[in-house]
Write a structure and sequence with these properties.
The complex is a heterodimer.
Chain A: H1 13-16, H2 20-28, H3 44-61, E1 87-95, E2 98-107, E3 110-116, H4 129-138, E4 148-149, E5 152-153, H5 156-172, E6 178-182, H6 188-200, E7 205-208, H7 215-225, E8 229-233, E9 238-244, H8 255-264, E10 277-282, H9 287-290, E11 294-297, H10 303-316, H11 323-333, H12 338-354, E12 363-368, H13 374-386, E13 394-398, H14 409-421, E14 427-431, H15 435-438, H16 445-449, E15 454-459, H17 464-468, E16 471-474, E17 483-486, E18 492-495, H18 508-515, H19 523-535, H20 540-550, E19 587-592, H21 606-610, E20 618-619, E21 624-626, H22 628-634, E22 640-646, E23 649-657, E24 665-669, E25 703-715, E26 719-720, E27 741-743, H23 744-749, E28 790-795, H24 804-812, H25 820-824, E29 833-841, E30 844-852, H26 861-865, E31 871-873, E32 879-881, H27 891-894, E33 902-903, H28 914-917, E34 932-933, H29 939-954, H30 958-966, H31 971-975, E35 981-985, H32 992-997, E36 1002-1003, E37 1015-1018, E38 1020-1022
Parallel strand pairs in A: 6-7, 6-14, 9-10, 9-12, 10-11, 14-15, 15-16, 19-24, 21-23, 27-38, 28-37
Antiparallel strand pairs in A: 1-2, 2-3, 4-5, 4-16, 8-13, 17-18, 19-25, 20-26, 21-24, 22-23, 22-25, 28-35, 29-30, 31-32, 33-34, 36-37
Helix pairs in contact in A: 4-24, 6-18, 7-13, 10-11, 10-12, 10-13, 29-30
Chain B: H1 4-10, H2 22-34, H3 39-65, H4 80-104, H5 111-135, H6 161-194, H7 198-207, H8 215-248, H9 260-286, H10 295-325, H11 329-340, H12 344-356, H13 364-367, H14 370-392, H15 411-434, H16 440-446, H17 455-462
The chains are: A alpha/beta, B mainly alpha.
Chain lengths: 1030, 468
């Protein structure tokens, strides 16, 4: 207002006085509106013209009859519900009896994403890939939808009537001829119903069968404790850990909690920080083995001998063992390979030296895996006692998964088969599970199954079991029904549904309630009724509501078992005599659960099928994995078809050569080769993988000696996502400094070891810091010192390579599975590639993992080559993708040095069932064919966080706004069980990411290309024992 | 004549053999157009258009399904479509080079082949332009690469080499087309004047723009032709330079190379001349044009192939040297991998065809042997296609070994490569039938009769009637 007219009009005193604040406000008043569009010439008149034309066109197009739709307003809105705002509900589930508490994200009533519950002791807010994948199972279009009598669909009323009348009849006979087979279900309500069933039908038998069995732990620990217990590991207190063929970080037990706690001992600030040490002794190559500081390749059958040697060595150092044990040891360990002996001695010394060594938190820990014999578990508990770890790093809890007097998995299924064969079972109720597929081949379960007159399968699919059953009852997904689960340490969580059953379904609880002829058969009444009966009283409803909200009950179901003092039943255990070492001609066949499909129960989950195996990187298939020496001896190579025979049984399979497996060991994976209608809706090649269950034997379900591999003609195509597994490119060129690694000692000597990384021609990576000259641009550099600047730090020291981030990303970002054929063509769409490199020679290799998503380069090579500017840089340092601008030249992907951009070669979402659409995150675009996509640090979450922060800031709550910015978490970070991924504002020097980036281990990949990536890595530090080195 | 070579130097043999007259030249060339189609022509056209149909079907399927029908994968985002594009653009170089550059240098021997070569250029560039158009993921939005005003207020990204490509190739195509068309005008008028049918008269008349052969017409024509030649000459250099930027401006080892512009231009001329020979050798036989496209023409072109082939060989060697000398292990690896890695077979096909075979042209016997020339020209064509393949496949192994993969072509890759030849030959065969394959007016200009001091005039003046 520079007017000199005295009589000018004014709006406020401020204006009259030409107050500075007013001037600013006036200038800002139409700030957004006054931003002129880039292209002028679009006038109002022009706009009206266009609108008029559009209306004319629309009215022509309007001749099409549109379907009538009703818009239903929320005149009576559900409580606490805002359309467009996601909600989280606490619930829980279990996989093979291992319970995890979850928070499930829900959009407008649709559960879309599974996350961990921070208040749950098996989760700590984290979830594994498998857990997160479960949400897709809910929307599996091939789920069983209606009850079937034989093959004929029937109604729920008919099913209900049948169950009532049938079991009323059985009641008259005291349940004679009635048998149940259930999965291992640590549910108090189910246990309660089970007890009532046993009371009501005293003649009935109950069999609990889990194909991935923990029999040997149960049996071994029962010998020690005289009651079935299971172990929970306080890994955060363990400074030396020895894993005896145990994949406690990958697929055994409470993996999420284990990884979370183990990582706490591996996080280091600087070269002075202490770090735990992990030894692994195993025959297969597990995720745990890849993370070990020392790994001993030992045939699985020799683990027991090693455990005895360890007993001896611990004994030599003063560890106390029952006389029975210490006397037996020398006889068993005679003739032990000196190398193995040395390993045992060094590990024993390390374990013993932790015992009470000055600090409170210094304890060793020995963990035995599923496949080891009961003796190993018993010995492990003794060793843990001897090294003073019992009650510290390992606690034992009652096993709630089956009644104390029940037989183990294999004994149960064997007993059931025998009763069936003997014609003692008229009515068999299969409560979930798929025993026809999973039962060990030697039993002939499928044939026996047909002998029962009435077979009722409560099943997710019309699967192998349901197909043979006389009645198929669709089973409810855990997000559809009520239940309760008790974790290893006794923590109970109510399984709270988020959605009504999509097609109508019963849970185990609901079926059992009907079997019992209850009045109130719905899950809610049953579960709530049980807890009211147990912990009822005044104020129960309030308590119940809080349990549902928190996802944990305030009191655990049980406490830990007191520290073991005296061996009660050790005499009952027989040491397994050491057999000959396996060879290529007489293989040791090891059966392992699949890292993604487990025992096959997730075979219809395309996310999990497409998630690569952490070691082999094979998707959509299982393989017969052998090491390089064995492959050479047998003259076979990867993708060769082969027959594997053992114990008179034979299966077809495909060879996959994986370094690091013990010599003469063939590792076969469960869970593939499923055969039922609707198997894999996204896959048009029919069956994937090979069913290995026919080889299994109930007497020794995990390990068989004397296997023979016969090479067959032809190749079987395998879809492997990483074809080249070494950082050494070949032709004698030095290893590329991608995963930078040092030992603790080396780190102390050279704290900045990770910084140099520029390769010199023909030389090993330099030891000294090589500073690449700063490349200058002819453009002025963008000023990134203002506002939020997003960055990420990935700690390779704690990344276990478990795939949780990969599945989280798929779930959050609507990433399409592409199928085996497309993966084989190299077109998988995962935004995070889990890079796995083998380090070392031949079979004695170590493995490093490196999650590789878009690095968000500040000077991104992808951006300037896009002809249509579809990928550009945001002022906050994100490398943005405008999907609807992308025309798909793929130039950006070509020019990406990390090759982390993914292209939609086809319309991968085409033809998907509408049910699957319900899983989609509404905040993320589903990409059409011809469009490039990639990681943007979950830009939708960033924007949500910024919106919330801005609202807080506008209301003057600055501190809260700052916290809201700090709380922005991409899906991968959120779920990473080891917190290896940290995201945040690097301009905020107090943020965790900024602090991590300031560590001396921080490095950027390919820094010589002047990319300035926003993702940097923290170099890996291994903690080898100097006594074992060299 | 024992001293052929000396005579050749001082008295070069006539550019047109067989002592033709103006009239006989007109007759010979126009007869090809005026005669009804011959059986061989029909067979050739039938075959070519069948292959073209295959291309069209493959493209239709591509539009329907997406780029997934090709063998592309994640590290190898560009496959045969881009290889074919660069290959055809390269072929499209000889035409303009022969026409414009040789015209400016007053190389009169060009007149017999320039029409031919220009037509080849136009058709090759058409083939080339097919590929960038169809290789994008969302074909219906491909026009966003053009700087058209739009409601999004978005311009294309002027920093992208692909955009430079759009401009470079389209400019080249426009100028080449104009240059060809301007050169055609007098000959179209000749055909119009000789036309018997209404349609031919109308069509040739329309395109000859009222040409009457007036002095003024000739003056304008000569000037326009000269200007266009002047414009086209730098474009010959610029278009492949810019095509090479698609690779050179990236950061990928094996692509990020400053030698690319001259190397690509040399390669383009090399392949262009080879393609001219591949086409000229059979056509001169088929249409009886041996008097126009003489062995001398062929030998000259072979010499250019020898020179450019050697340049290309030098570039290959220099790439290796620089890869080593740069001390960049990524770069060095990329080249060792090229020669000895999974695509070594392609690399050695390239080297054999492009570096070794042209060296045979040091021998005059081979240079002047029509059959051998034809065979060797095909080798060069193959070699130059593989050169682009080898370069594009640098993508299969770049920085992070975890991302490495292998590209294998699918049936559709093959269909489109072969189909593009169908498009090319269909156009070319149509050209041979409907347009004068040799520049009538220009050939007349290099006849001895065109020289005012031609001794024949004296002969004619002294005795006998003047004819011609």
């Amino acid at each position: 207002m520079k007017s000199t007219d005295e009589r000018r009009l004014w709006r406020s005193i401020d204006e009259l006085q030409q107050n500075e604040a007013f001037e600013k406000a006036r200038a800002d008043e139409f700030a957004e509106a006054t931003e002129a569009p880039e292209m002028d010439g679009s006038t109002r008149r022009h706009f009206l013209g266009v609108v008029g034309a559009s209306v004319a066109m629309a009215s022509m197009a309007g001749c099409v009859r549109r379907p009538e739709d009703h818009i239903v307003p929320y005149s009576r809105a559900p409580e606490e519900f805002l359309p467009g705002v996601k909600q989280h509900f606490a619930t829980a589930t279990h996989v093979g009896g291992n319970v995890i508490g979850l928070l499930v994200e829900s959009h407008e009533g649709r559960p879309t994403k599974i996350e961990g519950n921070p208040d749950h002791p098996s989760s700590f807010g984290k979830a594994s890939g498998v857990h997160q994948g479960l949400v897709l199972n809910l929307y599996d279009p091939t789920r069983a939808r209606v009850p079937q009598k034989g093959k004929a669909p029937t109604s729920w009323e008919a099913a209900s009537d049948f169950v009532r009348s049938h079991f009323r009849e059985l009641l008259a006979r005291q349940g004679r001829g009635l048998a149940f087979v259930s999965e291992s279900t640590p549910s108090p309500t189910i246990a309660h119903l089970k007890r009532r069933i046993r009371a009501t039908f005293p003649e009935a038998t109950w069999h609990t069968y889990e194909p991935v069995s923990e029999d040997s732990q149960r049996e071994g620990l029962k010998a020690s404790f005289d009651l079935p217990v299971r172990a929970r590991y306080e890994l955060n207190m363990a400074t030396t850990v020895l894993a005896l063929d145990s994949d406690f970080l990958g697929s055994e037990g409470d993996t999420v909690a284990n990884a979370y706690r183990w990582a706490q001992t591996r996080k280091i600030e600087n070269e002075q920080s202490g770090m735990s040490r992990l030894y692994a002794v195993e025959g297969r190559f597990s995720v745990t083995g890849t993370n070990a500081d020392h790994r001993l390749r030992l045939p699985t059958s020799r683990i027991e001998q090693f455990a005895w040697a360890l007993v001896e060595e611990v004994g030599k150092l003063g560890g106390a063992f029952p006389i029975l044990v210490s006397q037996a040891a020398p006889g068993i360990t005679a003739g032990l390979d000196p190398k193995v002996r040395k390993f045992a001695a060094v590990a024993a010394e390390d374990l013993m030296s932790q015992k009470g060594a000055g600090e409170v938190h210094r304890f060793g820990l020995v963990i035995a895996g599923r496949r080891t014999s009961p003796v190993v578990h018993a010995l492990t508990s003794l060793i843990n006692l001897a090294i003073g770890s019992q009650g510290k790093t390992v606690t034992y809890f009652p096993d709630p998964r089956r009644a104390d007097d029940e037989a183990g998995d294999m004994a149960s299924i064997k007993a059931l088969t025998e009763s069936l064969q003997a014609g003692k079972v008229d009515t068999l109720v299969v409560l979930g599970g798929n025993p026809v597929y999973t039962a060990p081949g030697d039993l002939g379960f499928a044939e026996a199954f047909k002998k029962a007159k009435t077979t009722i399968a409560l099943s997710d699919h019309v699967d192998e079991t349901a197909r043979l059953a006389t009645w198929t009852l669709p089973r409810a997904h855990f997000l559809e029904t009520w239940g309760d689960w008790v974790a290893t340490d006794g923590t109970v969580t109510i399984q709270q549904p988020l959605i009504a059953p999509l097609h109508g379904a019963w849970s185990e609880i609901e079926l059992l309630a009907r079997v019992l002829g209850e009045d109130k058969v719905d899950g809610y009444s049953q579960v709530r009724g049980f807890w009211q009966g147990r912990m009822g009283g005044p104020g129960f409803h309030k308590k119940w509501r809080r349990w549902l909200h928190d996802g944990v009950l305030d009191t655990p179901l049980f406490g830990s078992v007191p520290v073991y003092k005296k061996p009660q039943g050790l005499g009952s255990l027989q040491a397994t005599p050491a057999t000959d070492l396996p060879t290529a001609r007489s293989l040791e066949v090891v059966f392992v659960e699949d890292a993604n499909l487990y025992d096959g129960r997730f075979a219809n989950n395309s996310w999990l099928q497409e998630a690569p195996d952490p070691i082999t990187k094979v998707t959509w298939d299982n393989t017969i994995a052998i090491n390089m020496a064995t492959a050479e001896a047998l003259n076979v190579e990867s993708e060769d078809r082969a027959d594997l025979s053992v114990g008179g049984q034979q299966i077809a399979g495909v060879i996959w050569v994986t370094p690091g497996i013990a010599d003469g060991t063939a590792v076969v994976t469960l869970g593939y080769g499923r055969d039922f209608d609707g198997y894999l809706p996204y896959h048009d090649e029919g069956k994937v993988g090979f069913d290995v269950n026919p080889l299994r034997q109930s007497g020794s379900p995990n390990l068989l000696a004397g296997g023979k591999l016969t090479k067959k003609a032809g190749k079987y195509p395998v879809a492997c996502v990483q074809r080249y597994g070494s950082q050494e490119p070949g032709f004698g060129y030095a290893a590329r400094p991608l995963v930078r690694e040092e030992t603790v000692e080396g780190f102390q000597k050279n704290p900045t070891f990770a910084k140099p990384g520029i390769l010199e021609h023909g030389k090993a990576p330099p030891k000294a810091v090589v500073v690449h000259p700063e490349a200058k641009s002819i453009y002025p550099d963008w000023d990134y010192s203002q506002g939020h600047q997003w960055g990420m730090s990935i700690d390779l020291n704690t990344c276990t390579g478990c795939n949780a981030c990969l599945v989280a990303c798929v779930s959050e970002n609507n990433i399409m599975p592409v199928g085996k054929d497309q993966v084989r063509r190299g077109r998988e769409l995962h935004w995070i590639r889990m890079d796995r490199y083998f380090v070392g020679k031949d079979d004695d290799v170590q493995v490093v993992h490196q999650p590789m998503g878009c690095q968000q380069c500040e000077t991104a090579p992808c951006e300037n080559v896009c002809p249509v500017a579809a990928t550009t840089h945001s002022p906050e340092g994100l490398n943005d993708m405008a999907y609807n601008r992308c025309i798909g030249t793929r130039y950006c992907a070509n020019n990406c040095p990390f090759k982390v951009r993914r292209f939609n070669f086809y319309n991968y979402s085409k033809g998907q069932d509408e049910l699957v659409h319900m899983q989609r995150n509404p905040n993320v675009t589903v990409r059409f064919r011809g469009v490039m996509e990639k990681c943007t640090y979950c830009t939708q979450r960033i924007n949500m966080g910024k919106r919330q922060a801005r609202m807080a800031s506008q209301q003057g709550r600055e501190e809260e706004a700052r916290q809201l910015i700090g709380a922005i978490t991409p899906a991968c970070q959120q779920t990473c069980p080891t917190d290896a991924i940290v995201f945040g504002d690097i301009n905020d020097k107090t943020s965790r990411v900024a602090k991590l980036k300031a560590q001396s281990r921080d490095y950027q990949l390919l820094s010589e290309l002047n990319l300035h990536p926003r993702t940097s890595y923290l170099a890996k530090v291994r903690n080898p024992n100097p006594k074992l080195v060299g | 004549m024992a001293t052929v070579s000396r005579d050749d130097t001082i008295f070069p043999p006539p550019l047109v053999a067989g002592d033709p007259t103006f009239g006989s030249i007109t007759d010979t060339i126009c007869r090809i157009v005026e005669k009804p189609p011959t059986i061989p022509w029909l067979v050739a056209f039938g075959a070519a258009s069948t292959v073209l149909t295959m291309l069209l079907c493959a493209i239709a399927y591509l539009f329907w399904e997406g780029t997934g029908i090709w063998g592309l994968n994640n590290p190898v985002g560009w496959g045969w479509a881009i290889v074919n594009f660069v290959f055809w653009v390269g072929i499209g170089h000889a035409g303009t080079l022969i026409s414009a550059v040789l015209f400016l240098f007053r190389q009169k021997w060009r007149t017999a082949i320039n029409r031919f070569a220009e037509a080849m250029t136009i058709f090759a560039v058409i083939c080339a332009l097919v590929f960038p158009g169809i290789h994008v993921g969302r074909i219906w939005a491909a026009y966003w690469m053009l700087p058209l005003p739009n409601q999004m207020g978005m311009w294309p990204n002027f920093r992208s080499p692909l955009l430079w490509d759009v401009f470079a190739v389209s400019t080249y195509f426009t100028v080449s087309l104009l240059f060809w068309y301007v050169g055609l005008i007098p000959d179209l008028a000749t055909l119009r004047d000789r036309a018997k049918g209404k349609l031919a008269f109308w069509a040739y008349g329309f395109f000859s723009l009222g040409w009457r052969g007036a002095n003024r017409h000739w003056q304008n024509y000569e000037r326009a032709y000269l200007i266009l030649a002047g414009l086209a000459t730098p474009l010959v250099l610029s278009v492949h330079t810019i095509v090479s930027f698609d690779f050179a401006v990236s950061v990928i080892p094996g692509w990020h190379t400053t030698i690319f512009p001259p190397y690509f231009v040399a390669g383009a001329i090399f392949s262009g001349f080879a393609m001219v020979l591949t086409l000229a050798v059979p056509s001169r036989k088929l249409f009886g044009l041996q008097d126009f496209i003489t062995v001398r023409h062929i030998e000259n072109m072979n010499k250019i192939i020898l020179v450019t082939g050697t340049m290309v060989g030098y570039a290959y060697a220099m790439e290796f040297f620089i890869a080593w000398y740069s001390a960049s292990p990524y770069e060095a690896f990329a080249f060792v991998n090229r020669a000895f890695g999974p695509y070594a077979w392609a690399y050695w096909i390239m080297v054999s065809c492009n570096v070794i075979t042209p060296q045979l042209f040091w021998f005059k016997k081979i240079r002047t042997n029509i059959v051998l020339t034809f065979i060797l020209s095909i080798f060069v064509n193959i070699g130059m296609w593989f050169e682009r393949f080898v370069i594009t496949m640098s993508l299969h192994r770049d920085f992070l070994p975890s991302s490495w993969d292998y590209f294998s072509p699918t049936l559709f890759d093959w269909a489109m490569l072969i189909g593009s030849f169908g498009l090319f030959f269909t156009l070319f065969i149509l050209f041979l039938k409907f347009l004068p394959a040799v520049a009538i007016a220009e050939v007349k200009g290099v006849l001895p009769q065109a020289n005012p001091h031609w001794e024949g005039y004296h002969k004619h003046a002294e005795g006998g009637a003047h004819h011609g």
